[in-house]
């Protein structure tokens, strides 16, 4: 089991500069492919009875690559299908309607298209997204007559994601020497300062004229997530996600994570890396544009980002990073990612 932090204590810096530098350095090069890394599957069945074993497995998977997948997670396939159906119906709405729910910059709420420019690539992701962050949804829901049941379906799914994310985070909390509910207390859905986000993603189909090209670039450029923990839902066969552990970033060797609808892919984000004194690594990932031999149609995914409430103070136990509020931390990362 890895117990050493994977980076040496950096000079104490006040903001998110270290993560941003890391992302810019990653760049947009293709790199090489490797299947040598294991993306572990951790079974959460009988969670309470098997908590100690599950914690050990999660810790190993998280410290090895920072990416792992969950089975036995208790989210019903019907609920996941309903969330994807709601996402598909939303993205099918005319742009004129979606633009009424335009993204509230800095608040992770609402609809945007081609507006996320990654520091690694300098070009916009080939996608549109709709984000739900509980305290900021006033005026951002489509009318019930336009999309019956949309709001209820998404709020229900978001609540289930919150519960599952905090089940996993309770294991990391305990392993790090915090109380089991340490992270849950700093992600309070009832707080007006809540920042966790459910994001529906639609990557555009490759345009006809570009379909013969061998290398189409990135649907989403290389990045690490800003949050504590991400739950990622994908559809069978809608591949493209690739991972490169941060400690191996210089190798630029990427491991594909095949998309499976029955598993939930998880990754550690930068907030938890800081909070864990760098024991739990956040890792680079990206979504490749499919080539002529792949499915070049649209791709849908859903991500749940467990992001600590604005007033939470992220401070590593050993003081290796200067304390920063979750509000200021997200503000800096969003400012570096979204145009306008
Ligand atoms: O769509 C995916 O598979 C990955 C999405 C992602 O990494 C993100 O939105 O941060
Ligand atoms: Fe991501």
Automatic annotation (TrEMBL):
Biased amino acid composition, Basic and acidic residues: 9-26
UniProt KW Iron keyword: yes
Family: Belongs to the iron/ascorbate-dependent oxidoreductase family.
Identification of the protein by name: 2OG-Fe(II) oxygenase family protein
All residue ranges annotated as the Fe2OG dioxygenase domain in the record: 193-308
Residue runs in coiled coils: none
Pathway in which the depicted protein is active: Antibiotic biosynthesis
Pfam families: 2OG-FeII_Oxy, DIOX_N
InterPro entries: DIOX_N, IPNS-like_FE2OG_OXY, IPNS-like_sf, Iron_ascorbate_oxido_reductase, Oxoglu/Fe-dep_dioxygenase_dom
Top-level taxon in the UniProt lineage: Bacteria
Annotated region described as Disordered, given as residue ranges: 1-32
Record keywords, A-Z: Antibiotic biosynthesis, Iron, Metal-binding, Oxidoreductase
């Amino acid at each position: 089991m890895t117990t050493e932090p994977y980076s040496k204590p950096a000079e104490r810096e006040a903001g998110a500069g270290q993560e941003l530098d890391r992302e810019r350095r990653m760049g947009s090069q293709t790199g090489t492919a490797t299947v040598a890394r294991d993306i572990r599957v951790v079974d959460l069945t009988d969670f309470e009875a098997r908590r100690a074993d599950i914690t050990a497995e999660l810790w190993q998977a998280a410290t090895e690559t920072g990416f792992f997948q969950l089975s036995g997670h208790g989210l019903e396939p019907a609920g996941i299908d309903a969330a994807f159906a709601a996402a598909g119906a939303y993205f099918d709405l005319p742009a004129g309607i979606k633009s009424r729910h335009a993204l509230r910059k800095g608040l992770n709420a609402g609809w945007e298209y081609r507006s996320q420019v990654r520091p690694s690539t300098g070009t916009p992701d080939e996608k549109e997204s709709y984000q739900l962050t509980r305290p900021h949804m006033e005026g951002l829901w489509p009318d019930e007559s336009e999309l019956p049941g949309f709001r209820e379906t998404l709020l229900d799914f978001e609540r289930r994601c919150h519960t599952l994310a905090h089940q996993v985070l309770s294991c990391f909390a305990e392993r790090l020497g915090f109380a089991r509910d340490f992270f849950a207390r700093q992600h309070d859905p009832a707080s007006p300062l809540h920042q966790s986000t459910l994001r529906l993603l639609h990557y555009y189909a490759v345009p006809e004229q570009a379909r013969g090209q061998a290398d189409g670039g990135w649907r989403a450029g290389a990045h690490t997530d800003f949050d504590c923990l991400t739950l990622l839902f994908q559809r069978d066969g809608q591949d493209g996600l690739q991972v490169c552990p941060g400690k191996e970033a210089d190798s630029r060797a990427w491991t594909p994570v095949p998309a499976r609808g029955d598993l939930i892919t998880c990754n550690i984000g930068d907030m938890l890396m800081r909070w864990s004194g760098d024991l739990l690594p956040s890792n680079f990932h990206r979504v490749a544009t499919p080539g002529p031999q792949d499915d070049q149609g649209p791709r849908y995914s859903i991500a749940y980002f467990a992001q600590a409430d604005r007033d939470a103070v992220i401070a590593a136990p050993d003081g290796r990073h200067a304390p920063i509020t979750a509000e200021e931390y997200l503000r800096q990362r969003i400012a570096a990612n979204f145009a306008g």
